[in-house]
Amino acid sequence: MQGADTDAVAGALERGDALPGTGGFAGELDGVLVRDVLGRYPLFVERAVSDEGRRAPGQWSHDPTDLTNPNSFPAGHVRDESGSRRHWTLPSPEPFADREIAIEQVRNAVEKSVDAVDTDGLAIAFSGGVDSALLAARLDAPLYVAGFPDSHDVEAARSAADLLGTEVRVVELTHDAIERAVPEIARATGRVNAMDVQISLPLSLAAERVAADGFDRLALGQGADELFGGYAKVAKAPEDPRVEADTVRGAQREVIASLPDQLERDVLTLRAAGVEPVTPLLHDRVVDAALRLDGDLLVDGETRKVALRAAARESLPDEIASRDKKAAQYGSLAARELDRLARQAGYKRRMDDHVTQYVESLIE
């Protein structure tokens, strides 16, 4: 079992509690396969028919490369002798009645979860935004940022580190590093589409450096955008065609539902690079507090992640707490430079999904 201890998982199974106070779990308990409601740990099952020399149906692993034909085990599900079924569903609590109480509950949940992180062998992935800065301000661990020298993330991380009175170690991305890392990411994750590879590149290359420097755990601010209203498509609901919900809270739940797929990719990427991810902002207590936020505490006008920013001001300078940030693949310029490499290799933008075709060529 990865993640929570077996007693906590057994209790969650018995009660049907989707948020039992853990940081997620996946594995086997007394012959039952389980994966938590947010899929914070990857789990795969063999879907191939048993043939000579191949794993039999029923085999499972946390690493898809262990299996002949791996299939991702869905988040919130269990599998026993009677088959696979959904056991946990994300709760739909009523929002906090009072704004100040809501912010205080978010602050308590975030600070308790971050402060509980063991810093032994720990480094922090640091982009200079409010999410990773909360980790940097409250944990005694070195900071790392990956990006091309002129990238937004490198500049933002350096300026935020100055404001926090510390330093950040810069992992400078190069074309050679990208070309080397792409096949490694594809093998580890089983994914070749351009977006997944672009997102994984700065994570993978930062993690390699972290591992080379002697650290085996990497803390990230993952989940904050999904939980607290950090996406434009959530802020613009219901006008944004990328979401089906007709309210900001509904759009928040839609993007939270995308976490299992994202986390699977990121955990596999980081493990392949030699580190174990640590994600305190995805602890059950933080998830529970975020689900209780009303729409105006997620988005207020042009401001996103309203409650999280307000809560963070106890730990961070206002300049950092109020900062916007770019997605890692754009802030690091990994997406731009992977596109450039694709075009230099003859995969022009007029071609269908030209970057994915380029990724596939590197694997071949």
TrEMBL record:
Residues 52-93 are annotated as: Disordered. InterPro entries: Asn_synthase, Asn_Synthetase, Rossmann-like_a/b/a_fold. Keywords: ATP-binding, Nucleotide-binding. It comes from the Archaea. One of its GO terms (molecular function) is asparagine synthase (glutamine-hydrolyzing) activity. GO terms for cellular component: cytosol. One of its GO terms (biological process) is asparagine biosynthetic process. The keyword ATP-binding applies. It holds the Pfam family Asn_synthase. Residues 106-239, 252-346 form the Asparagine synthetase domain. This is Asparagine synthase.
